[in-house]
Amino acid sequence: MERIPEPELMEQWEQARAYALADFSEPHDAFVRHFQRLFPVFAQGRVIDLGCGAADVTIRFARAYPQSTLVGLDGAEAMLQLGQEAVARAGLDSRIDLRQLRLPAAGIGRDYDAVISNSLLHHLAEPATLWEAVARAARPSAPVLVMDLLRPASRDAALTLVRLHAAEAPPVLARDFFNSMLAAYRPDEVRKQLRAAGLMHLDVEIVSDRHWLVCGHV
Ligand SMILES: C[S@@+](CC[C@H](N)C(=O)[O-])C[C@H]1O[C@@H](n2cnc3c(N)ncnc32)[C@H](O)[C@@H]1O
User: Best of 123, 145, 181 to mutate for ligand 1, by most ligand atoms within 8 A of CB?
Assistant: First the structure.
């Protein structure tokens, strides 16, 4: 099935609120566990979360690594505002700094001991945008973990996954999940993107019925 792009930024309030209220504990805790499994030596540092949205992964990561500080970047004001509220509720304002920035952006320096990103790539019209930001942000040998959806083989397969994982979700969220799967990249496409970006040391691994991850050191 051909990829069907979706809008880059999640700027609509209804969409952002549904996303921020949703229970993503399963995939987002899995994201943190994958990081712990893949990078057992990492204990602390300055971490950047690209496309942090409402900061749910950012917060879970901060709790798992209490000695770390995080910068979360996102281009959408609505998502960031909800993220800022979630960070305040979690009492993590002193360790999580959320910034409104739309990639590609010049303002990212090679300042980070780890780079993480969840569910950003499928939003990007030009996927090289993410890989350039990863390469620009990561200090030498910094761990990188990027996770995203896997485009199913057909619309029917995508609908089956919606029924399986979003049967109880509000309609706006179920629709977004469906559209996001159609917009997602497949592992062979991601491998090509990594080669084109010169990120040969990063590997692609399928980790669930709907997710792949890219991991390694830059
Ligand atoms: C599906 S959400 C994922 C949010 C978060 N990482 C999570 O896992 O909950 C994707 C986020 O990427 C943001 N985004 C999309 N394109 C972007 C760009 N070019 N620059 C910055 N953020 C972008 C959207 O606004 C949205 O908040």
Answer: 123
For 7-17, the pLDDT digits (tens) are 999 999 998 99
Q: Atom 27 in ligand 1: which residue has the minimum CA distance?
A: 53
Tell me the backbone φ, ψ of residue 50, rounded to 5 degrees. Answer: -85, 125
Query: Which residue type sits at 159?
Result: L
Question: All domains of the chain, ordered by start, with CATH?
Answer: 13-217 (3.40.50.150)
Q: What's the rounded mean pLDDT across residues 196-209? A: 96
Whether the bond into 5 is cis, omega within 30 of 0: no
- Are the C-beta atoms of residues 133 and 112 closer than 8 Å to each other? no
* Angle formed by the axes of helices 77-89 and 13-21, nearest 10°: 30
Residues with CB under 6 A from ligand 1: 8-10, 51-53, 56-57, 74-76, 79, 102-103, 118-120, 123-124
- Phi/psi for 73 (5° steps) reads -115, 135
**pLDDT for res 105:** 87
Our mutation pick for probing the ligand 1 site, out of 19, 74, 131, counting the most ligand atoms within 8 A of Cβ, is: 74
Residue 26's Cβ-side half-sphere holds a number of Cα atoms within 13 Å equal to 9
Residue with tokens 């805790």: 29
